[in-house]
Amino acid sequence: MAVAHFASAEGTAARAQAATAARGLAAGAYRPLGRTGLTVSAVGFGGYRVDDGTPQHRAALEQALAAGVTLIDTSSNYTDGGSETLIGAVLAQHPALRDGTVLVSKVGYVQGRNMELAQEARRRGDPFPDMVEYHPQCWHCIHPRFLADQLQRSLERLALPALDVYLLHNPEYFFADWTQRTPAGGLGAARDTFYRRCTDAFAELERQAQRGRLGWYGVSSNSFGEAAETAEFVSLERLLEAARNAARQVHGGAPRLAVVQCPLNLFESGPAIEPNQSGGRTFLEVARAEGLGVLVNRPLNAIRERRLIRLADRLAPRPDHAENAEQALVDLEGLETDFAQRFRSSIAALLPPEAGPREPFDWATQMRTLLPHLESMEGWQQLVQQQLYPQIQQALGAATKALHGTKALDQLERWTQAYAMALQNLSRAIQEHVAHTEYGQAVALRDRLTALVPESWRALTLSEMALRAAATVPGVTCVLNGMRRAEYVRDSLGALAGVPLDGAEGLAVLKGWR
C-alpha cells in the first residue's frame, strides 16, 4: 500500500471515531486542529528523546498509534535526526495509518549534523545567511534558504513526500543572542528585524505549501507566555501579521499559518493567564479567536527558576539511602587518596592546565558539596555527562600517557578498575538519594494538586492529573507528552480515559495553583 502524502480530514476523523468506540472515550478525547480540518487526539506522541536505534522507542510509538494517538511531534534536531528516521520507518511499516495521523516537525536548530553542514557551507565561502550563533555548539537559523534545505532533509528522513505541519522551532533564540550582543537600536529595532525575518521565513513556507510539500505551518516558541516587556517575548499577533504579509507576497490569499506550540504546565501557565496580547488578551485567547491549533509541550517537565520539576509520581526510596550514599563516598574517597599518594607526582607534568592545583580525582570531595543540592535525576545525569565522565577520562588519559612503559602502569589499570566500580556504586547510591528528594517533592505536589482538581480526577496518578489539567485549558488542542517507553504511553493514555476533556477545569487548576 502506498503511503498517503498528507493526513486527511476524513482519515483523521475516522481514526478518532474508531478509537472512541473501541475504548469508550469521553467527549474531548479528540479535537479539531484549528482551521486545518484535521482531527487529533488530545494527547500526542512527543518525539523529543526517541531514536531509530532503540527498540523500545519503536515499540512505544507503535503502541501509541495502535491505542489511538493521532498526532506525532518531532523536530530535525531531536536525537540528531534519529527521531524523524524512527517515525518514518514506523509509518512505512503501517501505511494505512498515514491518512489518519497528523505529523508535525520543526526547524531552526543548528546542532550535530546540521552544525557540520553549516560550518562546511561557511568554509566554502557560501554560508547560510542570518545565522544566529547563540552558542558554540548551538546556532539557529530561519532564513528561507536554510528552511528549504532542512525541509528536504526532514522529508528524506521521514521517507515521505510531504509534511502535515512544519513549525519554526524556538526562533526567539534571535533575542537571546541580541541580549548578549546588545547592538545599537534598542529592543524595538531588534523586534522589527525579528518579525521581518519571520515574514521572509513564512513566505518560503507558503511557497513550499504551494509546491505540495507541506500542508500547514506555524511557530513553536517557549516565549509565547512571557510578559510583553520581556526581551525574548514572541507576539502571536505580530506573527499573524507577518504571515498575512507573506501570503500577500506569494499568492495573495489567506496564509497557511494554522498551528502554534508552547510549554504549558502547572508552573508555566503564562499562555493561559498572562495578558500579553492587545486588549489584555492571553496567547490562548488570541489563538482561539484566530482558529489556530495549539499544541502544548512539557506538561510534566516544568522549569521554574532554571530548575526542572517533574510532575510525576515517584517510588518510595530505600530507607537506607543516606547510609549507602555515605559509604559510597567513603569508598571513592579512599581510592582517590590512594591515587594521590601513588601516582600524583608521576603525572603532574601532563595534567591539563585547567586542573589547577587540585587533585585530578577528587570527586568524593566535590560530591559531598553537591549532594545536598541535587534535586532531580536529570540534574545528576547532566552532571555525569557534562562534567564527571569527561574530566575523569581526561585525567586517566594523562595518567596513562605519563606511566606508559613503566611498572606503575599495571597498578594504574588495577586502580582504574576499582575506581570504575566505586563510581558505579556511588551513582546508584546518589540515584537513591535523588529518588528520596523527588519522592518528597512528588508527594507534596500531589497533595497540593489533589486539593484543586475535580473529585473525579483524584484517583488518577500525578502525571495523569497534570496531563488532564493541561488538556482541559480552553484553547488547547493537543498535549504532547514524551512516550519513549511503554509505561509512558500507558500513563498518557490514562489521561484520555474516564471523565470528559471538553470542560475548562484546567484553567481553574492553573489559576488556583498560581
Outline the structure in words:
This protein is α/β, with parallel strands linked by helices. The protein has two domains: 9-312 and 461-513, NADP-dependent oxidoreductase domain (TIM Barrel, Alpha-Beta Barrel); 321-447. It has 17 helices and 15 strands. The strands form four sheets. Strands 3-4-5-9-10-11-12-15 form an eight-stranded parallel beta barrel, surrounded by five helices. A three-stranded antiparallel beta sheet has the order 6-8-7. A two-stranded antiparallel ribbon has the order 1-2. Strand 7 and strand 8 (138-140) form a beta hairpin. Helix 2 packs parallel to helix 16, helix 11 (321-347) runs antiparallel to helix 14 (408-450) and helix 13 runs antiparallel to helix 14. The longest helix is centred in the last third of the chain and has 43 residues, at 408-450. The radius of gyration is 25 Å and the shape is globular.
Structural class assignment:
alpha/beta
What is CATH's topology name of the largest domain? TIM Barrel
Number of domains as seen in the coordinates: 2
CATH architecture of the largest domain: Alpha-Beta Barrel
The largest sheet, given as strand count, sense and whether it forms a barrel, is: 8 strands, parallel, barrel
- Overall mean pLDDT stands at 89
Q: What is the CATH class name of the largest domain?
A: Alpha Beta
Task: Give Rg in angstroms.
Answer: 25 Å
CATH superfamily of the largest domain: NADP-dependent oxidoreductase domain
Beta-strand portion reads: 5-15%
Specify the overall morphology: globular
Number of strand elements:
15
